[in-house]
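Suppose you are handed a protein chain with no further information: no name, no annotation, nothing but its sequence. What can you learn? This example shows the usual starting point.
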Amino acid sequence: MRHPFDTLDWPIPTARLLLRRATPDDLEATWTFRQLPETQEWIGAALTAYDDYREHFLHDERLAELLIVELDGRVVGDLTLRVQDAWAQKEVADQAKGVQGELGWTLDPSYGGKGYATEAVRALIGLAFGRLGLRRLRADCFYDNEPSWRLMERVGMRREQHTVKDSLHRARGWLDGLSYALLAEEWPAPK
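A reasonable first move is to predict its three-dimensional structure. Written in structure tokens, the prediction is:
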């Protein structure tokens, strides 16, 4: 199955970064920052065995939706965009296919606090609404993951849901969850 990223010309430069498609050669670089305790605290799959991570990373579907964030040729993070169908009634279901996306990100913590995550996520949103023509984007996180929800707010996403103890964290137990979203018509046009 083709991912919409397949239709774009890569890499995509931003003011300071370069976004590009992930390749198997990115395994080591992503493994390094995804093994850090401050990263593993919040990622969905904190795989600690290298072989398990390699299998997860190299899975065709995962690799297809993964972008690498580079700063001066160094891998400093990754982004994901899962293109999804919107809920729709049967008569209009064809119009709801592949029109929205779920965003995800992981940044090497040693590069935090410099605006790189904000810059990279803004670029991904711009691609999703612009060249890919999606109509809606969403992202979820644990309420306790304040850096993630603050990032969602910085890029203009709207908090749509605060759920109470619906999200199970591997070490902290049941936590509150947050859902954010953004519509294409809410996104500013490029200047």
